[in-house]
């Protein structure tokens, strides 16, 4: 029987594909004959009928609730393959979606059907030009790739806190990180990009070339093309690339005092504060804080003690962490949050000007009740992020499409559970918590960091409510992508 065990898996795999991609076996593999000869030697086309196991792996997302429908994956072998694939898809009337690490979770992804996935994860070049302080990265690099390379070169720039997330995907939605108080958002550090447009042309986009599109890419970039390469500003390391990191666990009765202390803390450009609520062994949520700073340890410790030292705690660990390990060793290991098992997840977000401690207490209590009622939701959590905003707010509001420069706190709400039976309960809980946070968060109307958005909040919440801003984005969409080729992720309409 063992000899034929592999064959026994075939019906199971076929069954999975038939459920996830209901039209898949009515499609042909003509793409191999038609597109294959036009691609570089290193490119490959993966079909569900040719390699079902690989196809499933390449199309799976880290948030299983949102699932675009693909009929083929094209793994590019070179930058030049991307415009070739776009032109082919246009001729055939086929939707496309680019992917690197596949972490985006907008519900709009589920509107993508019979699409060609353009896998750019193979574009992994990283080149530092120390003479002009820039780094050029391929469209497939991750945060970890950039952190490691820059740390070794004694350089730095703003990079996200989850190692496995793509550098460019995060940047296009804004891109928060621990160094933003000194250097601005990830998107603020983009110097230029190579962009494959909706018509399949390759263009350079920068402040001096296609400047209107450069404005749009920084904050709404998923709507305008596929970036195959980007140049970022980099900087000399501070504090030899090391960070002080204090990790503390508090009893739940300290929540109001803790968030009051965070709200009253005079934040320096080098310091970030994260709090996370996660299920404990008994499903009662644990309250953990990470206080990290690029200042020398004695200075960072003094800052922490002055603002948080009076709070009783359960445990505390202080450490000095090199910046290339901060996402995994420091800051509560938050770099693993988006990189963990691909169980079923649903996610909402909220951007806040201020923390309201009574609201946060109510959120904690609702989380505890959600876990008690749904004990299988052990993959759930709430992440509270307080980044420094000095360099972020030094950038004029109108300079980029990113519309949330007045936010001080980000909240990511995550429900993780084994299967779809908890979808409704999770969605109800997440939506109620997001609404509560918006009501006391300091903005007149809901604001959501685009990379954390669920996709149902509306254009204003993602891209800003200023009429001029939305009209400009719509006009640029009409000019550069009138047919909506790039509309799978938080789409901007052209009308």
From TrEMBL:
Gene3D superfamilies xref list: 3.30.465.10, 3.40.462.20
Oxidoreductase as UniProt keyword: yes
Pfam families: BBE (PF08031), FAD_binding_4 (PF01565)
FAD-binding PCMH-type domain: residues covered: 66-237
InterPro entries tied to this protein: BBE, FAD-bd_PCMH, FAD-bd_PCMH-like_sf, FAD-bd_PCMH_sub2, FAD-linked_Oxidoreductase, Oxid_FAD_bind_N
Cofactors required: FAD
Protein name: FAD-binding PCMH-type domain-containing protein
Species whose genome carries this gene: Discina gigas
